[in-house]
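Sequence only, no structure available. Ideas?
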Amino acid sequence: QVQLVESGGGLVQSGGSLRLSCAASRIIFSISTMGWYRQAPGKQRELVAAITSGGTTNYADSVKGRFTISRDNAKNTVYLQMNSLKPEDTAVYYCNAKWSRVLESWGQGTQVTVSS
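Reply:
I predicted one. C-alpha cells follow.
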C-alpha cells in the first residue's frame, strides 16, 4: 500500500480559496498520474483534476478556470489550488496515485466545506 498524505482542507466562504496538498513516496510519485477526486454526500466519487507524470492536465468541466492542479517532483507532492469556491464544491477530496491500469492508491480524504 502506497501512502498518500493529504492536507489543506477546511471551511471557507463562497468565493474563497483553498490549496490541497498530497505527498507520496518518491518512486511511485515519479511514475504516477496524480489525481484529485471528490465525493459529496449521496453522490458518487468524481474526478476533479489529474496530472500525468509528464505534466499533462485534465479537469472536470465544473472546475475549469477555477481549479489548478500542479505537481512538484522535487517534493513528491501534488497540489490542487481551488479558487472562486462554490457551495457545490463541498465534498471530501481524495488524492489518487495511479501507476498502471490496475495499480493505484488513495489518500484518506480531506473535507472541504464552502459556506454560502
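The longest strand covers residues 91-98.
Hope that gets you unstuck.
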